Input
Amino acid sequence: MSDVTLNAPKLFDLSGQVAIVTGAGSGIGQRIAIGLAQCGADVALLDRRSDDGLATTAGHIRAAGRRSIEIAADVTNKGSLANAVARTEAELGPLSLAVNAAGIANANPAEEMEEDQYQALMDVNLKGVFLSCQAEARAMLKNGRGSIVNIASMSGVIVNRGLNQAHYNASKAGVIHLSKSFAMEWVDRGIRVNTISPGYTATPMNTRPEMIHQTKLFEEQTPMQRMASVNEMVGPAVFLLSEAASFVTGVDLLVDGGFCCW
Ligand code: NAP
Output
């Protein structure tokens, strides 16, 4: 038998690590940021929101006994991301973990969609992930280690019945393949890159006006007959970021209540 001194529960311990989470002021990013702190990490919280979202996240992290900083920034701005990473390292320490959850969603029939609507979404959902990973990896490559999780979507794998969001679906398929590409570029330099593809999840994104009537359908269409809670994204993120996933890179983890099986 091989070495059994491995402390299995410790595999998920993030103590001593520094993380950055984009989209940390709301929804999935907010809950994952708090979860990382609950597992021992200090967390830089990045979001463009001007409400009290980031402060709420920071309050929960304080309650977990960890440190955080709040960074108001836009993931489409390369300079802001470089500054965010520099500030994170100056105030919290060497960056080793990142979760890129900032994203937007909207819908319109493809034949009616204006170029501006297409481009604005692509800028946030795809270019924003590219620029975030680039800024984070520059620090991680210097530090010799890192683990990145990008939040894609099952919409990058399937086409959601009844939702006219070709640009969103394409952006998420892009995030999955972009992440696999990063994973291979950095595989021999200590950095792992994976994606989580959530199914329908109860967040503010799903309470936008054109979505409210859809909630019941989302529940019916999901094999588990319900939407995910943001809490259910924490375990997958901690797993992929932690030593528990030390041989896992370039993977897309569907967290969809079985949706993509049907
Ligand atoms: P959410 O509650 O709206 O949270 C997203 C956060 O990202 C918001 O605070 C948002 O700010 C921020 N953000 C958007 N654009 C940004 C930018 N350019 N720079 C910095 N921050 C920005 O949405 P969510 O449901 O948690 O979604 C998080 C991620 O999960 C997204 O990538 C989404 O596509 C993905 N996802 C969600 C679901 C779902 O069912 N909810 C399913 C699959 C995948 P604003 O409020 O100002 O936009």
